[in-house]
Design goal:
The protein is mainly beta. It has one helix at 101-109; strands spanning 23-28, 50-51, 64-67, 74-80, 87-97, 115-120, 129-132, 140-146, 156-164, 167-170. The strands form 2 sheets. The protein has a 6-stranded mixed sheet, with no helix packed on it. A 4-stranded antiparallel sheet has the order 4-5-9-8, with no helix packed on it. A hairpin with an 8-residue loop joins strand 6 and strand 7.
Length: 180
């Protein structure tokens, strides 16, 4: 298989519109029945990072969804490591508005949990998600809080996830967890 091919500009500006849907989806690694992976014998460029087989969950499990502040979900990537052995480090950030015991406890739990995360493109066409994490590696999280003032705005948590490699394009179905 070739390592390179031509990259062309998408025909429609809608296809390269920035951003992601204002929903952060995740599932604890332990809640999956089976975590799918890219093809072990990729045939075209892109197959090494595509997951086309659906993940599976027990009937009472699935992904959780956090509504995030409009337009706050961003992803950046940069190289890390020594020359000749560089990998891509991916960072995603989002803001959760408000402050409550439930919100605080859940966000605090992300600090030491093995979570696999899913982001949907802002164009919302198709059922493809950006997936961070796999059976071996999951993102590390940090959480910050800002109460702001009555004049400055809302109480908000800023959540940051980082992971080296383990970024995929997942096109299988996602089962949403029925728990509230």
């Amino acid at each position: 298989m070739a390592s390179y091919a031509h990259i062309t500009k998408p025909a429609s500006p809608q296809l390269y519109k920035g951003g992601y849907e204002d929903v952060f989806r995740f599932c604890p690694k332990a809640d999956f029945t089976a975590i799918a992976a890219p093809s072990v014998s990729p045939s075209v460029i892109g197959d090494k990072v595509k997951i086309t087989t659906a993940h599976t969950w027990p009937t009472d499990k699935g992904v959780f969804e956090y509504a995030v502040k409009n337009g706050s979900l961003v992803v950046t990537s940069e190289p890390t490591g020594d020359p000749g052995a560089r990998l891509m480090k991916h960072t995603f950030k989002f803001i959760v508005l408000g402050d409550s015991a439930s919100t605080f406890e859940q966000l605090q739990n992300t600090l030491n949990s093995n979570l696999i995360c899913f982001l949907k493109d802002s164009k919302c066409v198709g059922a493809e998600y950006l997936q961070f994490g796999d059976t071996c590696t999951q993102p590390e999280f940090s959480v910050g809080f800002n109460s702001n003032t009555n004049l400055e705005g809302s109480k908000e948590y800023e959540v940051t996830g980082t992971i080296t490699e383990s970024k995929y394009y997942y096109s299988g179905a996602l089962t949403v967890n029925a728990e509230d």
